[in-house]
Structures are given as structure tokens and as C-alpha cells.
Amino acid sequence: MDLQKTEPSLKRALLTILNGVRDPSIPSEQSLLPSLRPAFRSQMLIGCQGLLEGRLSTHWAVLQQQYLHRIGSRRSSRLWASRLTQQLILIGFYMWEHRNSVRHSDDNVNYRECSRQVNERIHSQFDMGTDDLQVQTRPMLNRTRQSVLQKTLVDREEWVKMLTSECRRHRRALAPQHKLLYDFLHPDAPNHDP
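Above: the chain's sequence. Below: its structure in C-alpha cell form.
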């Protein structure tokens, strides 16, 4: 905004709105000059996020043009608005890119913890072997442990979900047989589910 000779109080107003992207309680017109308040209200109708998406209220260009006339500049407020919009879109893009890199980075603490838990579940599935699995599910453990651990977090989570749901299904299918065997071996026991 400095390169485009943005009017200082207008710059403060726009920065106040941009801070509202992070904290919606921040933008308040009380700290602004009365001449900026209609533009501020107009922009707030569009929204703080809208500003980052390049949706700039036309009131800003009018105020900027008045400032340019006052300082005797021959610059155009339309060009100013166009360049400001480009800068705002880039800021929004960089914020989005940063947020994604933090959220999906291997350095993310939550990601590492989730990955550690999934890896533990994979190790325990391999350690349990194929006994609780139906014949058609056993090939999932024919892979090497290392090949499963090298998959992406999403793929490892899916692998664990499929395997544990198959184990659960197999145990449920065997439950009536276990009950029958228990009742046969303990005929005097009260009706009891093993």
C-alpha cells in the first residue's frame, strides 16, 4: 500500500479490516475518521474475507482519489484499486498456502501424533497375526510391515480401519459358536455370555 501512495488513514482502516480475518471481534469503526466510516461499513458488508478475495468496496477508490487530488498526484484511483486488489488476493493466497503447509506438514505436532498412533496400531495388527482374520482378509498381512508403514497417513488409516473392522466382523460371526461351546462345557453355569 505504501508503494501506491495509499492515504495513511485509509491504509489503517484496511489493515484493521484485514486483522478481522484472524479475529472477527477486532474491526471497529470507532477508531476511524468519520470520513472513512461509510467505506468501512460498506466493506464490512462485503466481509473481511471478501477483502482478501479481492472484493474491494468502491468507496475506497473515491477516498483514495480525493487524497491523490489533495497531494497533487496524477495517479489514478482505479489503478490504485486494481493493484491493491492484486496485493490482497496474493496475501489471501499466501495465508491459505501457509495454513495448508502447517496443517499438512510432517512437522505438524498433531500430524506426528496421529501418525505415531496409526503406526502403533499397524504394529499391533502385524503382531496379532492372521488368527482373527477371515481367509479373504489375510492377504492384507502378506505385505511387509515396512511397506504398510511407508504409505501416506490417510492410506495407513484406511488400512487399519479395514483390518480392524474385518477382525470385529469375524469375532461377531464366531460369537454364537463360542456361546454354544461355553454352554456345552459349563452346563450347570447360569446363562452367561462369555
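DSSP finds eight helices and no strands in the chain.
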